[in-house]
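Postdoc handover notes: sequence design on the structure in folder B. Input tokens:
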């Protein structure tokens, strides 16, 4: 796992774009990774990177921190943090009662209750974790890209200059 993360970070460092665009793309990818939007992560990253003129590839690489192996623990942490902040945690018995439904209207009611009871805390916790991860990631990535380029003698390493 560590080797995979190192490889992903090296790929980000080697991207051909300004340090700001690469760092912003990485921050966008990490931000989206922490939101409960599974299934549309990549679409959100590309759209936000396009709107904010960030590096789309850096965002797509970074969003893969949330993958089939990490998404459940990430969502659990988001929910727990949000439930703690809202002082509203649903118990296992309450959850079992909600998902026990009869017929189409019962399913629809259960779905909406889960969206409120689980979704609210997940969104709050996810946005908190997204911000806590994305903001330092921007500065760390920008610093790392500039350092990586300086070590290789690239003129793009100096802020404000562009690559040939």
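Designed sequence:
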């Amino acid at each position: 796992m560590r080797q995979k993360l190192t490889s992903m970070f090296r790929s980000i460092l080697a991207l051909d774009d300004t340090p700001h665009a690469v760092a912003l793309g990485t921050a966008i990818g990490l931000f989206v990774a922490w939101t409960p939007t599974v299934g549309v992560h990549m679409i959100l990253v590309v759209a936000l990177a396009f709107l904010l003129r960030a590096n789309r590839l850096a965002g797509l690489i970074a969003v893969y921190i949330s993958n089939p192996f990490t998404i459940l623990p990430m969502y659990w942490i988001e929910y727990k943090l949000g439930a703690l902040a809202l002082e509203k945690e649903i118990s296992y018995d309450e959850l079992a009662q909600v998902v026990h439904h009869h017929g189409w209207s019962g399913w629809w009611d259960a779905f909406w209750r889960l969206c409120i009871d689980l979704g609210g805390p997940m969104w709050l916790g996810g946005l908190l974790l997204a911000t806590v991860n994305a903001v330092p990631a921007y500065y760390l990535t920008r610093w790392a890209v500039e350092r990586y380029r300086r070590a290789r003698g690239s003129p793009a390493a100096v802020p404000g200059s562009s690559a040939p």
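Context for whoever picks this up: The chain has seven helices and no strands. Don't rerun without checking with the PI first.
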